[in-house]
From TrEMBL:
Membrane spanning stretches: none
Family: Belongs to the NADH dehydrogenase family.
Alphabetized UniProt keyword annotations: FAD, Flavoprotein, NAD, Oxidoreductase
Basic and acidic residues composition bias: residue spans: 447-488
SUPFAM superfamilies: FAD/NAD(P)-binding domain (SSF51905)
Lineage: Bacteria, Bacillati, Actinomycetota, Actinomycetes, Kitasatosporales
Keyword Oxidoreductase: yes
GO MF annotations in UniProt: NADH dehydrogenase activity
Region feature (Disordered): 431-488
Protein name: NAD(P)/FAD-dependent oxidoreductase
């Protein structure tokens, strides 16, 4: 095991765990404020920041996957990147234990710690879901979905009977929050473009079904955004079924709680997220699984530990008595406050509390459509679509030109309908505490040393994932996932 503490004698060492919206911004702010007077280490499983809001466009073939990533070493100046996943925090010894990408373990000593590990797919104890559904929280899942949808359309076009054709080109998305709505909206346009070049049997069209137990789509957002999204989706032919959920999932289809059954080979699970299980291991008070912090983002009784983003329960000073929502908007701004307050704790500048008034929300409905309410002004149609894309371009910390170039190409050329098959079903189990990484195959399947080491890590993680899922009442194991899905 390698152990690293302060890199330069005399300089404080700040460790930031997680380089998503909150962690990336914390590192950037801290680096700018302290100007090399502090050693900053970011621990993250990937070498990139992932711009999650554009993930549905990756799944629909609008954007190539690397477009929604921003290199950490290329964009965070004077920040050291350690590749790995934290699997334990010892608050007394002030150390973070982690596992590297090839299974090696290491330890980072810190003077200040920022926990910004985000969230993972939320599971519900519905029979068959863990084995047959896929989440939508990371790049591997988006790549998998793009290939899977393409393959289903290809198999549907070649199917010998109408029943198989119908089931293969039926896609069910569960959860009509912004993720589910965007996946369904983009997915429908994607399959439409695929069947243009690959016609299905007469009378059969791709069918997208969007389910939510709530009474409206985008239940957590302004009613007007919800109405716009609902209208656009229905106009395109997406079956929006509110007040409905899944009772059981099998390899051949889903049974809904209204008694209807939908034959399908595709179940996308977008019911929401839960905080990354790492925060539970910290052993401090939690609020719905999120680590409780004060308005300065400090973990109580530990002035040297900060937490922010989806993983932290941050009091919402703009809505007293509530905690801030799990959104990129909050995570990004909390990261900035965390960076500022870490610097202040080291004698640079003043600390401040986190307060943010909602600036509105944008929902990308694919094509030129969108639904948005910037500063509370409701917009729909192409204007909302333009505002949504403009917002994303402005918000991305890099890669903007490439993203804009892909959008231009997509407007001018037909979508590329090929599946590369690099991410298979068993690489992206729904039950995972690491949706940002594709799961590796068993070592006996490859014989490679790297895989053996990584598999050792996977086995350890499986145990912790299982513990978490057992707590949520879901007893399914990933072994079952792998067995059932090996064919795909
Ligand atoms: C498809 C999709 C679309 C979305 N669209 C929007 C939107 O339009 N607007 C909006 O406001 N929000 C949106 N969100 C929500 C938003 O992306 C999250 O709220 C935001 O990413 C939270 O930021 P974070 O920094 O807390 O977590 P993340 O951005 O998820 O970052 C967490 C980081 O921690 C790393 N990590 C995890 N575990 C460990 C570990 N054990 N050790 C080390 N590193 C670890 C991860 O790899 C990741 O880099 C969307 C989410 C999804 C999935």
């Amino acid at each position: 095991m390698s152990r690293t503490s302060s890199r330069t004698a005399g300089r404080p060492h700040v460790v930031i765990v997680g380089a998503g919206f909150a962690g990336f911004q914390a590192a950037r702010t801290l680096s700018r404020l302290t100007r090399r007077r502090v050693d900053i280490t970011v621990l993250n499983p990937t070498d990139y920041f992932l711009y999650l809001p554009l993930l549905p466009q990756v799944a629909a073939g609008v954007l190539e996957p690397r477009r929604v990533t921003v290199s950490l070493t290329g964009s965070l100046r004077h920040v050291r990147l350690v590749l790995g996943e934290a699997d334990g925090v010892d608050l007394d010894r002030r150390t973070v234990h982690y596992t590297g990408p090839e299974g090696e373990s290491g330890e980072l000593g810190y003077d200040r710690l920022v926990l910004a590990v985000g969230s993972v797919n939320k599971l519900l104890p519905v029979p068959g879901v863990a084995e047959n559904a896929h989440g939508f929280r990371g790049l591997p899942e988006a790549l998998y979905l793009r290939d899977h949808v393409t393959r289903q359309i290809e198999l549907a076009a070649a199917a010998g009977d109408a029943e198989t054709c119908r089931s293969r080109c039926t896609f069910v998305v569960v959860g009509a929050g912004y993720t589910g709505v965007e996946v369904a909206a983009h997915g429908q346009l994607f399959t439409q473009s695929l069947v243009r070049r690959q016609p299905l049997r007469a009378g059969i069209r791709p069918r997208w079904v969007l389910l939510d137990i709530a009474e409206r789509v985008l239940p957590e957002l302004d009613r007007r955004l919800s109405d716009t999204a609902d209208r656009v989706l229905r106009r395109r032919g997406v079956e929006v079924r509110t007040g409905t959920s899944v009772k059981e999932a099998t390899r051949e289809g889903v049974l809904l709680d209204d008694g209807d059954s939908v034959p399908t080979r595709t179940l996308v699970w977008c019911v929401g997220v839960r905080p990354d299980p790492l925060v539970e291991s910290v052993g401090k008070p939690l609020e719905r699984g999120r680590l409780l912090v004060d308005p300065f983002l400090n973990v109580p009784e530990h002035p040297e530990v900060f937490a922010c983003g989806d993983a932290a329960a941050v009091p919402d000073l703009a809505k007293p008595g509530q905690y801030t929502a799990m959104t990129a908007q909050h995570a990004w701004r909390q990261g900035k406050v965390a960076g500022t307050n870490v610097a202040a704790s080291l004698g640079v500048g003043e600390r401040r509390s986190y307060r943010h008034h909602d600036l509105g929300f944008t929902v990308d409905l694919g094509g030129v459509s969108g639904a948005a309410n910037p500063l509370g002004v409701p917009l729909s149609g192409p204007l909302a679509g333009a505002v949504t894309r403009g917002y994303h371009l402005a918000a991305m910390p890099g890669n903007r030109v490439r993203v804009a170039a892909d959008w231009l190409l997509d407007a001018a050329l037909p979508r590329q309908g090929v599946q590369l098959g690099l991410v298979r079903s068993w690489n992206v189990p729904l039950e995972s505490s690491s949706p940002e990484l594709a799961r590796v195959p068993a070592p006996e399947q490859t014989g490679h040393t790297d895989d053996k080491q990584a598999e050792k890590k996977t086995t350890e993680k499986k145990t912790s994932d299982k513990k978490t899922s057992d707590k949520s009442g879901d007893k399914n194991t990933e072994t079952k996932n792998t067995e059932k899905k090996n064919q795909e």
